[in-house]
Amino acid sequence: MKAWLLLGIIVASTVMADLLQSTEMKRHGEIRDFHPRGLGRLVANLARKKYLILAVVFMAASFFAFMTLLEVADLSFAVPASAATLVFETILARLVLKERVDSRRWVGACLVACGVALLAK
Amino acid sequence: MRPDSRLHWKTRVFAIIVVLSNALGNFSLAWGMRHRETNSLMDYFAAIFSPWVMLGISLLILWLLSRMALLSWADLSYVLPVTSLGYVASAIIGRFFLSEQITPQRWAGTLLIVAGTVLVGRGSPHAKGEL
User: Fold this and answer.
1) Among candidates B112, B66, B7, B81, which has minimal Cα distance to A101?
2) What distances in angstroms separate CA B44 from CA A101, B36, B41, B54, B102, one per listed residue?
3) N or C terminus of chain B: which is more exposed, having fewer CB within 10 Å?
């Protein structure tokens, strides 16, 4: 029961972290300046974005939930969780981020999800 | 160079950085934490400032920043399958450096991930066509 609860926390927080990051970075627009000074300014600028701060909080929650999950469950249970995340996120990328997810991306996401599930011992 | 060709190359370079920094970062962390006892707060600090763990943390910061950069122009539904190649890189690192076994089932998983990555990677990183 505890393992399923942790799994739920991992999936939900990973999905939230990625949706927030993607939204904020799209709002920023394509990064073109890769000179050290430009990058320094960029990081300082991004560190003030609320969505990105929230995304890092969700990533930390996901990380600690994953470490706790490894104490109560095997890696073979924990790893396929990330495969479930991939499918959820593709669905939400279509519904929330309004991305144009064509058949190539759906098939690709499903192939990768099945592959990750098989990688677990 | 045509704009979409430039974007394709930039996307590939960043996808490689994301994949390698994630796999090598996790490996460095795992290597640094091996056989280490962390019973007290001081043990944790000692672990964090050990060279392998520092390298692992630096690589994972690079992973986070390069992935954010990639998301500034590429769709999430593109980035996710393409950067899943990190699972394959981790399996290969585990095979060569940690002497983990790769069973036929795991090889099949690796092939499926590579197939999914290649399939999505051949498409456009940004399907709305605004860039």
Assistant:
1) B81
2) 43, 10, 5, 12, 32
3) N
- Residue-wise DSSP of A98-115: -----HHHHHHHHHHHHH
- Report pLDDT digits (tens) over A36-70: 888 888 889 889 999 999 999 999 999 888 888 88
State the CB neighbour count (10 A cutoff) for residue A29. 11
Chain-centre distance of CA B77, in angstroms? 16
**Cross-chain Cβ contact B116/A46 below 8 Å:** no
Short-list B14, B97, B27, B29, CA closest to B62:
B14
Distance from CA of B123 to the nearest CA of A (A): 8
Distance CA B33, CA A27 (A): 38
Residues of A in Cβ contact (< 8 Å) with B81:
86, 105, 108-109, 111-112
What's this model's pTM, rounded to 2 decimal places?
0.86
